[in-house]
Amino acid sequence: MRHSLSLEYAAMSEQTRTAAWGIALLRIALGIMFLAHSLLLKLMTFGLSGTAAFFHSVGLPGWLAYLTFAVEVVGGLMLVMGIHARLAAAALAPFMLGALVTVHWTNGWVFTAPGGGWEYAAYLLVLCIAQVLLGDGALALAPSRNLGPAPKGPLVDGARPYELHPAVSYDG
Hints:
It is a single chain. The protein is mainly alpha-helical. Helices cover 61% and strands 2% of the residues. The chain has six helices and two strands, in the order H-H-H-H-H-H-E-E. It has a two-stranded antiparallel sheet. Strand 1 and strand 2 form a beta hairpin. The longest helix has 32 residues, at 14-45.
């Protein structure tokens, strides 16, 4: 039996409801950041061929620039729209780890250092991991699968309401 949205919402504490909006804010901001990083930096500033040349200059295959661009655009859109945000963030995390290890780590901490330091890539990596753990939050068009078993419904033993998590499907 599927419980109505109003029953689910009413059973949530204020903290749980506001957490859903906080998670959505993280998801949308992270998606916008990846869209800006790919479209504004890689496409419009350096061009994809320039980005491929940069990848080649640091010892990476040039084709990886095109794959990185595509993953950042698609992943960014998925995050903004709330389409399987956990999957999108999980797909983006290895690219940030790769950027951190292969390009930015030896440049120092501050991103404004020559060659760009590691703070920005590390921060985006941590945010991707947090998004995977937290889920979609509010306003997700296609919510992610749960990381664990879903609760059975908004009532335990038919009597006591319990805290509902906004990123969990409540099919009972």
